[in-house]
Design a protein that fits this description.
The complex is a heterodimer.
Chain A: E1 7-10, H1 14-21, E2 27-29, E3 37-41, H2 46-55, E4 60-64, E5 84-88, H3 94-103, E6 111-118, H4 120-138, E7 143-149, E8 155-160, E9 169-176, E10 185-191, E11 195-201, E12 206-213, E13 216-219, H5 227-241, H6 247-263
Parallel strand pairs in A: 1-2, 1-3, 3-4, 4-5, 6-9
Antiparallel strand pairs in A: 6-10, 7-8, 8-9, 10-11, 11-12, 12-13
Chain B: E1 3-8, H1 12-24, E2 29-36, H2 41-48, E3 52-55, H3 58-62, E4 68-71, H4 75-87, E5 92-95, H5 103-116, E6 119-122, H6 130-141, E7 146-155, H7 159-165, H8 184-197, H9 203-209, E8 215-221, E9 225-233, E10 236-244, E11 252-259, E12 263-267, E13 279-283, E14 289-291, H10 299-311, H11 319-340
Classes of the chains: A alpha/beta, B alpha/beta.
């Protein structure tokens, strides 16, 4: 019998302690960050926390549900390229994104619309993940073209892919709503010969992807693996394979777009 | 005794839409005359309903049997034909959307109808959809709390729906080449046509909750045929999105209204078919989704029923609202065209 590698995971987050319990063969808890996959909470100044994990000798970092930070708080160029970072984005789970993209079978979107609604405190984070969905469904980075915010904090923006083979436009509409649940609602439509409709509603516990073609509607199966467990598994796979994960790069792309949008 | 209808126009909208709808409302209306502009289609349609047919509009407008003139010709003809109908002594007009293509035309038509005391109805069917009526009631109660509106259309070719309500297609003329959308003047013209031809379905409803157009934020023609338009109406942001596809899934025709608490989503059925009213669902701030049942009747039937009510005097003709709706669409189309041409040497 081949003994699989067991990774040490350093985390205090309850969701990750639970995920650890769900990975008894491949992961084990550790108190010290050195040589471990260090889980950095995405709250507060998570960039500094990531730097601390790096300085502490972490093998890799899982960044858990990052919130938007001010532009000046991060220095993307200073992160060592070989250091693996997996970003857990519960509204933008890579397995759900993969379901959505794969079901399009290469049919390009003609346009993408994103609508976000969340309490003011969480609206920027919803926009961040909305930008991520637009990027994923269009298949490349997006640029900000025009936008506006009202005094009440609602926003609309026009984005596009600016690709060589013709630019694909996207729009983002965001509205602050009342309530106490910070998660909010994301509704994404990729329109074209294949239509993708994504609804992520955290207060409702809804994470739904539908693919609509001339033949009908496919509602993709629900993903029951926790977002934290998925992130840990991906981190361990990235460490084993040595294949660099694009998560941090994509997060910074989405943050750059969100900053541009928030500046408008 | 049913009201006698004369129809100016014999295109797909008449064959696949108005004649079947009027067939459903036989106790209220009967078609007595159909006129085309020389295509010969009027005869085929008229023979089936025992009506007269003619070419051009003069015979129909002179026909004493015609009580209601239904203007179903291309949009550029609407205002002129309404004025011609009034001049011929007709006093009831149903006009397919849009009412007019310029502010001047709209003002002229409404003034003339008001002066003549004519009954005028514009066929903005979504406005008469019962589901929209209920959604609007909910939104009016939330006055001042509407934050954003989006109207999103993804439409396959109309022939798919013509085929289930009519025979003898294809009804759509083959597209003659692709316009050069890189040319801002062409793009502005296309966008103007799409707004006054397609967005017009929902603009009166948008105006109900977001009157005024303060600023166009973006306007873009989206290939193959479509648009993305964003504008501000006071504190409300409005986005209009359209893509017309050569093939693909069934039509998506969705109006979403984001308020400070709820999100109201109205999904209209495809054009031409009779699938009942729009389907409405509301998402409350705590993540509860409520889906409301569809009504049996759609906006097409409802608009003709309302015309019957106007004829019976049971409802007033809202000249000011009709004018405001028409101006809103024209002003938006003009502002959007200007946005496209911004910075382009004229």
């Amino acid at each position: 019998m081949i003994q699989e590698r067991v990774f040490s995971i350093c985390t205090e987050l309850p969701a990750y302690r639970a995920a650890l319990a769900e990975l008894p063969l491949s992961a084990a808890p550790a108190d010290d960050v050195r040589g471990t996959v260090a889980v950095v909470p995405g709250t507060g100044d998570w960039w500094q926390s990531m730097q601390a994990a790096l300085a502490g000798g972490a093998l890799a970092v899982v960044l858990a549900d990052p919130t938007m930070l001010p532009r000046e708080a991060v220095e993307p160029d200073r992160w060592p390229p070989g250091m693996q970072v997996i970003v857990e984005r519960p509204r933008l789970r890579p397995d759900v994104v993969s379901d959505a993209v794969r079901a399009r079978r290469g049919s390009p979107a003609r346009m993408v619309t994103v609508e976000c609604a969340a309490p003011s405190v969480g609206l920027d984070d919803a926009i961040l993940d909305g930008c991520g969905w637009a990027r994923s469904l269009i298949g490349g980075p997006l640029s900000f073209r025009a936008g506006i915010a009202t005094a009440q904090g609602s926003r609309i923006a026009l984005l596009d892919s600016g690709g060589d083979d013709g630019s694909i436009p996207a729009t983002l509409m965001a509205t602050p709503v009342g309530g106490f649940h910070g998660g909010g609602l994301l509704q994404v439509l990729a329109l074209g010969e294949v239509r993708t409709e994504v609804t992520v509603d955290q207060p409702a516990g809804l994470n739904r992807v539908e693919t609509v073609t001339e033949e009908g509607t496919l509602r993709h199966p629900e993903r029951y693996e926790s977002s934290a467990r998925l992130a840990l598994r991906r981190a361990m796979e990235a460490c084993s394979s040595g294949e660099p994960a694009a998560d941090l790069h994509e997060l910074f792309q989405d943050m750059a777009l969100t900053w541009a949008l928030l500046d408008a | 005794m049913p009201w006698s209808v004369g129809i100016l126009g014999a295109g797909p909208g008449v064959a696949a839409l108005h004649l079947p709808v009027l067939g459903r409302l036989a106790e209220m209306f009967r078609v007595v005359h159909i006129a085309d502009a020389g295509s010969g289609r009027a005869r085929r349609l008229a023979e089936r309903c025992g009506a007269r047919w003619s070419e051009g509009e003069a015979d129909l407008l002179a026909d004493p049997a015609v009580e209601v003139v239904a203007v179903c010709s291309p949009p550029s003809e609407h205002a002129r034909q309404i004025l011609a109908a009034l001049a011929s002594g007709k006093r009831t007009i149903f006009c397919e959307k849009p009412l007019a293509t310029s502010r001047l035309e709209a003002d002229e038509v409404i003034s003339a109808c008001r002066a003549a005391g004519a009954v005028l109805m514009v066929g903005t069917n979504h406005l008469f959809d019962a589901a929209w009526g209920r959604a609007k009631h909910h939104l009016v109660a939330l006055e001042g709390r509407v934050r954003a509106i989006s109207v999103t259309l993804a439409l396959p070719p109309n022939d798919r729906y013509h085929g289930v309500v009519a025979e003898g297609g294809p009804f759509q003329a083959a597209r003659r080449g692709h316009p050069d959308l890189q040319d801002p003047a062409v793009a502005a013209g296309v966008l103007r046509q799409l707004l006054t031809g397609l967005a017009i379905h929902d603009l009166p409803a948008v105006r109900d909750i977001a009157p005024g157009i303060d600023e166009v934020i973006y306007a873009r023609v989206a290939p193959p045929v479509g648009y993305l338009v964003g504008y501000r109406a006071g504190g409300v942001l409005v986005q209009l999105a359209l893509t017309m596809l050569p093939q693909g899934p069934d039509a998506l025709w969705r109006m979403s209204i984001a308020t400070s608490h709820d999100r109201v989503e109205v999904n209209f059925p495809p054009a031409f078919v009779h699938a009942g009213s729009a389907a409405t669902r509301v998402r409350s701030v705590d993540g509860q989704w409520t889906e409301y049942r569809r009504d049996e009747e759609d906006g097409y039937v409802a608009e003709w029923r309302l015309l019957a009510s106007l004829l019976e005097g049971a409802a007033p003709v809202e000249y000011d609202e009709l004018l405001a709706d028409s101006r809103y669409a024209i002003d938006l189309a003009d502002a959007v065209a200007a946005k496209i041409l911004e910075g382009v040497p004229q």
